[in-house]
Specification:
The complex is a heterotrimer. Chain A has helices at 3-41, 47-51, 65-96, 100-114, 117-132, 137-161, 165-173, 178-206, 233-242, 246-280. Chain A is an all-alpha fold. Chain A has one domain (65-280): MetI-like fold (Orthogonal Bundle). In chain A, helix 3 packs antiparallel against helix 8 (178-206), helix 5 packs across helix 6 (137-161) and helix 8 packs antiparallel against helix 10 (246-280). Chain B has a domain at 87-281: MetI-like fold (Orthogonal Bundle). Chain B is 69% helix and 1% strand. In chain B, strands 1-2 form a two-stranded antiparallel ribbon. Chain B is flat. Helix content of chain C is 30%, strand content 23%. Chain C has helices spanning 74-81, 111-117, 133-137, 149-162, 166-169, 182-194, 212-225, 238-244, 262-267, 272-278, and strands spanning 36-45, 48-58, 63-67, 91-99, 102-103, 118-121, 200-204, 230-234, 247-252, 255-261. In chain C, the strands form two sheets. Chain C has a six-stranded mixed beta sheet with strand order 6-7-8-3-9-10, with helices on both faces. In chain C, strands 2-1-4-5 form a four-stranded antiparallel beta sheet, with helices on one face. The longest helix of chain C has 14 residues, at 149-162. Chain C starts with 35 loop residues before the first strand and ends in a 5-residue tail after the last helix. The chains are: A mainly alpha, B mainly alpha, C alpha/beta. Chains in contact: A-B, A-C, B-C. The interface between A and B is large, with 93 and 87 residues.
Chain lengths: 281, 335, 283
């Protein structure tokens, strides 16, 4: 082999190794974060943590019950509004979205997906908090719904498009009108995928903090009143992480562990839905 | 063959209609299709209305600040809520600076990972590694911030900086006392957060390069690496730039993790070790308690600026990606 | 014309000789109205024609095979018969398709209703994956008269018997159709098509994706189906056309070249192109 050939081979091997290195560096933070969450958070996951709410400043103990319940409520509010609108938009884009209107709406959805969630929070403040005169869980749900709709619209569209055209043709050949073809054949076939898309979007939205900062605001007390400020898991983590007390930091790690488990659980359920449907059908 | 004659089975379920009835049935109208389409269209129109509402709301909300400061707002450095004097320069600089640092770190790592996954990884490694990279995108921002405060900053300040200081300390880029919260910390956290987006889109771009190109490169006698560097990457260049711009768009809007590690100080400083401030962080910190109309209007205004920047950047990214991967759904979902 | 029976009664299969129908529409009172016929039918895809000026009749209780090389328009014609052709954007149809003498392309005719009377089976089996076998067969009933559950079960059983599938699936009606073989799935699709009792059944290369055993089953089935339905089958396989059909129509480059009794077409075709195709000089 000529010296040049040797050099090229060595460089090739080095760069190949370098790509191995970058991949390793890329997944290292994930491992580090997960490890730290378990190390620092698992110890604090006791019964109190899940059933008690915050205690007065400076005291130790207490838990995140109000924050966990708050997140569940606010996310449920967001889903109640955001999921139907998002799924319906996605169906529209897949079934009727070939022309200019479809192109425009798809374009708008992509723009909305790129807007920082803090800006959405500002928008929700203007449209819900300011008219109402106070912060509320409803405002938080509204902000999260606004984030949900464009995400769910695009994932739904993709899932519906995946349904093979031959199925549509078979239904039409039976004398099904288009709407029945869409609802009873196409959507039934795409249902698992649509649900998966929704679950993934919900997981993403459940972890959002910024849009809740001045909509739901957070609450140190346990509350289920929809028209009052409400605690949420990410908000509580943020507040406690920034606070001066070690006990707060400890609880912040525990809360973070619960949050990541929630997100992972939703993702796992999403995958299971797809797998279950595939075995069924 | 089973007996199919009618007598072997039950009699017909319902009497056959007459020829006249059947002919008339052919002429009935189905209105369901029009209704269905109408209902779906109404739902779909919600999105454009929403975008208009957001844009309009930002402009209206920003008006007190626009009226008072005019365009000089973007280049002034003052931030005085007491006297209602505001200038956004440090915020804009901080936003761009931290994002730029993040790109500097994330792009080589993302590209390397994408190349690894498409070209060099053994088959059994591909899915696990790809999944772990994807999971990075699923971690909520506040958890990155938490990790940033209690793990990354002490790591940088107490372990890495003392080693690097003799070498880098005299550079203006690394001047000043390193307390921890800094543009550097924000850049590193942002890099981790945008890495999965750049890697995922780059990977799809690389996969979209036709096999024929790859084979041609190898057939010309190139090593695997040379084929990647000289054939595949140039072919997908526009798309990869698009992936990078997409990552930039994400970094610009990131709020929580940055707020928790950047130090939140209204100052323009060159040193990476100094605290900084971003538009998103300022809004996060100050919006709930903004007292005067001008203060709040200022926050709306910087929100409008951020909105415009991210919309443009994302549009550019999608255009670039679209040009390479036309028709496919590359990068279309919000990961 | 051979045979003097009322078109309505399902009876013994009878051989028929069909000459191209004269340009005037047949009077509705005449006893020999073909169940389905086309009249100067032309169908376009965008700018190019798929079939041009086709006039052919499909007699009741017969199997008519449409044959010809790829791209000759036989599938286009088939799809025009149940108004599936127009579902593709940019298509156009001129001429008439007469079902019992009435033009299904006439003003005010609802194509959705047309397709309930003219059913179609496609090349690849397309069972609905989220429905059970029984639900698949009953799928076409959902758009017709309301039936009680018992009636519906009876119709499903009858359709599966007609499709020669009942014995094989009667114990697993609730199972997924994806567990069936390709040939069984195709017979399921045929059962699904016959359950709502259409008058005409169109088959678009139904055995193209099946193995020889599955193909043989379907061909037997087609012979049985003609007892109760009018069958039109597109096939690229000449031997299949010879085995299965009473009448054969040969198409080339969008035109109907020749149509006649199958035995005659294959032994003494009149047109040179027909002979060339049948003897394999081009495919």
């Amino acid at each position: 082999m000529t010296p040049r050939r040797v050099l090229r081979t060595v460089v090739g091997s080095l760069m190949t190794g370098a790509t191995y290195g970058t991949a390793l560096l890329a997944i290292l933070p994930l491992a580090a974060i997960l490890a730290m969450l378990i190390v620092k958070g698992a110890g604090s996951l006791n019964w109190d943590f899940f059933v008690k709410s915050a205690v007065p400043l400076g005291e130790s103990g207490g838990g995140f019950a109000h924050a966990i319940v708050g997140t569940l409520i606010i996310v449920a509010l967001a889903c109640a509004v955001g999921l139907p609108v998002g799924v319906a938009t996605g169906i529209f884009l897949a079934e009727f979205g070939g022309g200019r209107i479809g192109f425009g709406i798809r374009f708008v959805a992509d723009i909305l997906n790129g807007i920082p969630s803090i800006v959405i929070g500002v928008f929700a403040w203007s449209w819900v908090v300011r008219p109402m005169g106070h912060f509320s869980a409803v405002a938080g749900g509204f902000a999260l719904a606004v984030i949900l709709v464009p995400i769910v619209a695009r994932t739904t569209e993709e899932m519906v498009r995946l349904v093979p055209n031959s199925l549509r043709e078979a239904a039409l050949a039976l004398g099904y009108p288009r709407w029945r073809t869409s609802l009873q054949v196409v959507l039934r076939t795409a249902a698992a995928g649509i649900v998966t898309g929704c679950l993934v979007a919900v997981a993403r939205v459940a972890g959002e903090t910024a849009p809740l900062l001045f909509t739901a605001l957070g609450n140190d007390f346990f509350s289920t009143r929809l028209l009052a400020p409400m605690a949420a898991l990410p908000l509580q983590i943020y507040r406690y992480a920034e606070g001066p007390y070690d006990d707060w930091h400890r609880q912040a790690w525990a809360g973070a562990l619960v949050l990541i488990l929630l997100v992972l659980a939703l993702s796992l359920v999403a995958r299971a839905v797809v797998r279950g449907r595939r075995q069924h059908a | 063959m089973t007996d199919l004659s009618a007598t072997a089975l039950e009699p017909e379920v319902a009497p056959r209609s007459t020829a006249e009835e059947r002919w008339r049935a052919l002429q009935t109208v189905s209105r369901g299709d029009a209704v269905y389409r109408l209902v779906l269209t109404v739902f779909a129109l919600f999105l454009p209305l929403l975008l208009l509402a957001i844009a309009g709301d930002l402009v209206v909300g920003a008006w007190p600040a626009i009226a008072k400061f005019g365009p000089s707002f973007l280049v002034r450095s003052i931030w005085d809520p007491v006297n209602d004097q505001f200038g956004a320069l440090p915020l804009i600089v901080g936003t761009l600076y931290s994002s730029f640092v993040a790109l500097l770190i994330a792009v080589p790592l993302s590209l390397g990972t994408a190349i690894f996954l498409t070209e060099f990884a053994p088959r059994w490694l591909r899915t696990p590694v790809a999944t772990m990279v994807e999971l990075l995108a699923a971690v909520p921002s506040v958890i990155y911030g938490l990790w940033g405060i209690f793990v990354l900053i002490p790591l940088l300040r107490d372990h890495l900086w003392p080693i690097a200081r003799p070498v880098l300390g005299h550079l203006p880029l690394f001047s000043g006392v390193f307390y921890g919260p800094s543009v550097l910390a924000a850049g590193v956290i942002l890099a981790i957060m945008i890495l999965p987006y750049i890697a995922a889109v780059s990977r799809e771009i690389l996969l979209a390069v036709p096999a024929a190109q790859r084979e041609a490169g190898l057939a010309l006698g190139g090593t695997r690496w040379e084929t990647v560097w000289r054939v595949i990457l140039p072919y997908g260049r526009a798309g990869i730039i698009g992936a990078v711009v997409l990552g930039l768009g994400r970094a610009l809007g990131e709020t929580m993790a940055v707020t928790m590690v950047i130090g939140n100080r209204h100052e323009v400083a060159l040193s990476l070790l100094q605290p900084g401030y971003t538009i998103a962080s300022a809004i996060a910190n100050e919006f709930a308690e903004a007292t005067s109309g001008v203060h709040r209007g200022t926050l709306f205004l910087i929100g409008l600026v951020l909105f415009l920047i991210t919309v443009l950047v994302n549009a550019l990214a999608r255009f670039l990606v679209w040009r390479v991967a036309r028709g496919s759904s590359v990068g279309s979902t919000a990961l | 014309m051979a045979g003097v029976s009322t078109p309505e009664r399902a009876g013994r299969p009878r051989p028929s000789v069909t000459r191209p129908v004269p340009p005037k529409p047949a009077p509705a009172a005449a006893p020999a109205t073909p169940r389905l016929a086309t009249e100067a039918l032309t169908a376009w895809y965008g700018g190019s024609t798929g079939v041009r000026n086709v006039s052919v009749a499909f007699r009741e209780n017969t199997v008519t095979a449409l044959i010809g090389p790829s791209g000759c328009g036989k599938s286009t014609l088939l799809r025009a018969l149940n108004r599936m052709h127009e579902l593709v954007p940019g298509t156009r149809v001129e001429g008439q398709v007469l079902l019992d003498g009435h033009d299904i392309y006439g003003d005010g005719i609802n194509p959705v209703q047309v397709r309930r009377r003219i059913g179609m089976v496609f090349q690849r089996p397309t069972p609905f994956p989220t429905m059970s076998i029984a639900q698949n067969v009953a799928a076409g009933l959902a758009v017709g008269r309301r039936l009680s559950a018992d009636d519906r079960d009876a119709v499903v059983e009858r359709a599966l018997r007609r499709a020669a599938l009942w014995d094989e699936v009667k114990d697993r009606l609730r199972d997924s159709p994806l567990d069936l073989s390709g040939g069984q799935q195709q017979r399921l699709c045929i059962a699904r098509t016959v359950a709502p009792e259409p008058e005409v059944i169109l088959l678009d290369e139904p055995t193209a994706s099946l193995d020889p055993a599955g193909t043989a089953h379907i061909e037997e089935l087609v012979q049985e189906l003609k007892r109760e339905f009018t069958v039109v089958i597109v096939t690229h396989n000449m031997q299949q056309a010879a085995r299965v059909s009473d009448t054969t129509a040969f198409f080339y480059l969008g035109e109907l070249i020749e149509v006649g009794a199958t035995t005659t077409m294959f032994t003494t075709p009149t047109k040179p192109q027909t002979e060339a195709y049948i003897t394999g000089r081009f495919g």
